[in-house]
Amino acid sequence: MSAGVVRLEVVTDSAKPTLMVVDGHSLAYRAFFALPVENFTTKDNQHTNAIYGFLSMLVNLIKAEQPTHLAIAFDTSRHSFRTDEYPEYKATRSETPSEFRGQIPLLQDCLAAMSIPVLTKEGIEADDILATLAAQGSAQGFDVLVVSGDRDTIQLVNDQVTLLYPNVQGVSQLKRYDPVAVQERYGVRPEQYPDIAALVGETSDNLPGVPKVGEKTAVKWLTQFGTLDELLERSGEIKGVVGGNLRDHIEDVRRNRKLNRLLQDVELPLGPTDLETRPIDAQAVRDIFARLEFRTLLPRVFEAVGEDAPEEEHVATVALPDVAELAAEGLATWLKAATGDVAVEVTTAGGLPQRVGLAHGDDLVELSWSPQVQAALADWLASDAPKIFHDAKSQVKALHTAGMRVGGLAYDTNLAGWLLRPSYPDKTLADLVDRYLGEKLPEADPTQLVPETEGASPAQLAWFTARVATSLRTDVPESVDRVLREIELPTLITLADMELAGVAVSHEILSGFSQELGERAGRIAEESFAIIEREVNLGSPKQLQEVLFEQLELPKTRKTKTGYSTDAAVLADLQESHPHPFLDLLLQHREATKLRQIIESLDTAIRADHRIHTTYVQTGSQTGRLSSTDPNLQNIPVRTEESRRIRSAFQVGERYETLLTADYSQIEMRIMAHLSGDEGLIEAFNSGEDLHRFVGARVFGVEPEEVSSAMRTKVKAMSYGLVYGLSAFGLSKQLRIEQSEAKQLMMEYFARFGAVRDYLRASVLAAKEVGYTETIFGRRRPFPDLVSPNRVLRENAERAALNAPIQGSAADIMKIALFRIHSDLLDEGLASRVLLQIHDELVVEVAPGEWDATERIVRDRMGGAAELSVPLDVQVGRGGDWNEAAH
DNA sequence: CAAAACACGTA
DNA sequence: CGTACGTGTTTTGG
């Protein structure tokens, strides 16, 4: 016996062997619904929830029941002798999701590795195989355990045969049915159960029964008449409506009974004695579990068969290559010899480089930062020599700060990991090492002052990064790899410079405004306390609920998890139906304190250079957008006149002349026009007419100049809502109109712009097929939930999938424009620089005398970032502060 | 003390 | 029952 093979030995107390036969299909299907798919998806998007759930249950069963003989039966297809007989059989069942079907072959691979026989037969259902084996087994003196989620198997139960049937939820709990338990639960002997089922019918199999007859009536009749035949014979004796129903449906009952009888004489290649449990192939199990990313299941499998888990590869003992400490002199030679990819890890301190680790294959070197090292490194770093990083941006920033440019950025494992799985937060290199190498990155225990375990050194981190990159490169599809190389990596360099530049913000303006708002909030609070004659914390939804719904006895609003909502929309509704001075004051208080809070957080973020340096998280969204943190500069208020005073505090910096803002107008609608090819919408953008006026004219059948502002508001909401998968319900709510009117509006809209609806439908359908959406440039976003049996999950996924290519393409376009602008400004030797990106807007700081050149670059690059069937319209503004520049 | 819930700002 | 984000406050739960 080879070292990796373990005997599956079974010890039972009784001399009688135990045969366990399992309906693989029905139990895996239950597991599929019971386990959330998001927790069971591998890195290449293979769903494993059904496999995991089934194996988990099986392992528990083997452990508990200790069968000496074991087999799993599967259906081959929907088609069977029953569908031949009665084509409507199971016809109402919705198609099995492809995500489930795809798991069956893999599950069978697992079973093969575990040396468990899998039985199937063309035209025969799994339950017939179970029935046959159960009959043969009990005849041959086995104790038989039938495991199935199909109620028809109840008929198999007798003194030798016990059924294990899953409880309503999931597969973790199995209920044991022996003849006594069946009698208790159903009121009849097991062999009579099919008679009951024939009378009652089986909705899930599309077998209608006798109307108005449920379990209770069926049991009563059978007890009364003894057998089904007798009952049907003497159906005339049954009185009333049900008696008539029975007589009218006798043929249905006979058919049902015929179909639900399980075959006990199927010809099978293996009989019970052939199913003796055999040694499992430890290596094969390990391999397939690794592929399915099952970690906890492996030891459980071995435990269940009474063996210790075989030695795991001790990841911690994977030998790390030695690291050579280099001095500046040795570096040039080393770099010259290192052809091809070199992985780099720069540790930083105080925003400057500290140590540098380099990995070229297993050749690892490290250096401490010094002017000599910098001099020896600079040319290579700026050159096209390919370099691989994990999360390059922070390292690039430190290098830029030290006065070095980074060229040849060939790969970033952080970005690649995100592009492959944008919804999974593989934040750190350690996460990726675990996921893609199956190893553990040595990390120092941060809780220990003097760590017992040494963390990986910079060169070793670079070594891991290079190996993760190799693995990722085999996983990342070509189109996604292009997004990485042609969009994300150039964007990374640009973002590094934007973050370093920061934006000048006036503390004076902010603190003055903050004080003003603070005083106002105080006054409002006082006033509102006077009205309700007590003091509450206006920031506490819980206390507000007391005041609003108990003290003031206002009508209860939208429910939340913990009570009733007090959000602004709800308060505005309340104010309309039940005007109360407290409501108005509360809204004003919210507004003032919210603004003040934003101002305060901005103020504390101003650094010594009088500028705010946000951090753009390039992997921060699932669609391809950037996000901004510490502080978030992408949600600075703009909607009200007063809130725009905050934007006035964002000012042109010293030695610069003015701010330039540039934004895409209606970029998402333009992308919709392009993707859908809708001629009306394309014409709208080419006509030069105001978009919503044009659309309004078409929808309402009037001349553009006759479009009223109410009409314009409606089509505008409709147009924007489209991009988000808005429903008639949502539209009616937003516009405060009747649902019927909203429905009508949507009808009219699609009557004129039908290609838009066609595109949106086709796009979601295509995503359902392939499992992901794709932007114009090839960025992908997986959507496993599109085939979820859970309606809420599925519909959420549908809306997100509808939006993803549109929002994502817009993000791609903006990124392309952004790095090209950045690169043009540098190439032309201009000092002007991009400071902020707010999804469809850029803020640029323009140096004296550079306005014309900068504006030209910005307009050209934004307008020319993509060739669509409609023009990309760019609005440019100029001013000394952000608010002024926006006009 | 950390996490959840709520509310609200932007595109 | 409208997509994508981040942040602050209060409340909750261990």
Architecture overview:
With 887 residues, this protein is of the alpha/beta class. Among the domains are: 5-182 and 262-304, 3-Layer(aba) Sandwich (Rossmann fold), CATH 3.40.50; 323-476, Nucleotidyltransferase, domain 5 (2-Layer Sandwich); 507-609, Taq DNA Polymerase, Chain T, domain 4, CATH 1.20.1060; 667-804, 5' to 3' exonuclease, C-terminal subdomain (DNA polymerase, domain 1), CATH 1.10.150.20. The chain has 36 helices and 27 strands. It has a 6-stranded mixed β-sheet. It has a 6-stranded mixed β-sheet with strand order 11-14-13-12-15-16. A hairpin with a 2-residue loop joins strand 13 (352-360) and strand 14. The radius of gyration is 35 Å and the shape is globular. The protein starts with a strand and ends with a helix. Residues 1-13 and 312-317 have low confidence and may be disordered. The chain binds a DNA duplex (11 and 14 nucleotides) through helix 23, helix 25, strand 20, helix 30 and helix 31.
